[in-house]
Structures are given as C-alpha cells and as structure tokens.
Design goal:
With 110 residues, the protein is an alpha+beta fold. It has three helices and three strands; from the N terminus they run βααββα. The protein has a three-stranded antiparallel sheet with strand order 1-3-2. A hairpin with a 2-residue loop joins strand 2 and strand 3 (41-48). Helix 1 crosses helix 3 (58-69). The longest helix has 12 residues, at 58-69.
C-alpha cells in the first residue's frame, strides 16, 4: 500500500524523517517495501500483514502511528449529505422489540 507522507501528516504529527520511519514502522506491524520521491513528496510503500486489516487505510495507519508515538490523531470529519428523496420513500424499518432495539437509523446509498 502506497502512502504519501504529506497525506499521513494531515492526520498525525510526523516529525520523523523518512529514514527514521523506515526503522520504526516495522514495530507497528508494517513492513516498508520501499521509499520513493514523487513530485516533491515522499511516498512510503508499506506491506500490511494479513492479520492487520485495520492498517489497510491511511486513517488506520495514522491511528496506529499516533497511538504508538503517543500523539494526537486528527480524524477527517464524517459528514453525510442527504439528498431527495428521503430514505423513507425507498425503505421501511420496523422495530419489532423496542426493549432490544430502541432506535434504528437507515440510509439508502445509491
């Protein structure tokens, strides 16, 4: 998985040099297959172990690095934009037992 270092730095402070990262990332379960310089940025080619699907995204790598380095992670804002028609026109939700499920929210994604 290729990750531009500039993108990683949008989510977590990474003052380390690319060479320092190559030494430290294996401690997180991330192999480093290579480092490239592309358009003025450093791109890390990471190898993710099959038992670490949480590291298969930029946010996952940022969260793990932040936890390991005891730094804050800046997660992207999650915003859902609703459009017409409302979901209620496409699907219906029935709560059979309100004691077991007091609330249910549904979205339709097309």
């Amino acid at each position: 998985m290729r990750i531009p270092l500039a993108w990683l730095r949008e989510f977590v402070a990474v003052p380390e040099s690319p060479d320092e990262l190559v030494e430290r990332l294996p401690m997180l379960g991330l192999g480093v297959d290579g480092v490239e310089h592309v358009a003025g940025d450093v791109v890390l080619d990471l190898e993710v172990a099959s038992n670490r699907p949480d590291l298969l995204s930029l946010v996952g790598v940022a969260r793990e690095f932040a936890a390991w380095s005891r730094r804050d992670v800046r997660l992207p804002a999650d915003a859902v934009t609703e459009h017409d028609p409302p979901a209620a026109t496409a699907v219906s939700v029935e709560i059979v037992d309100a004691a077991l499920c007091p609330r249910y929210i549904a979205y339709v994604i097309e």
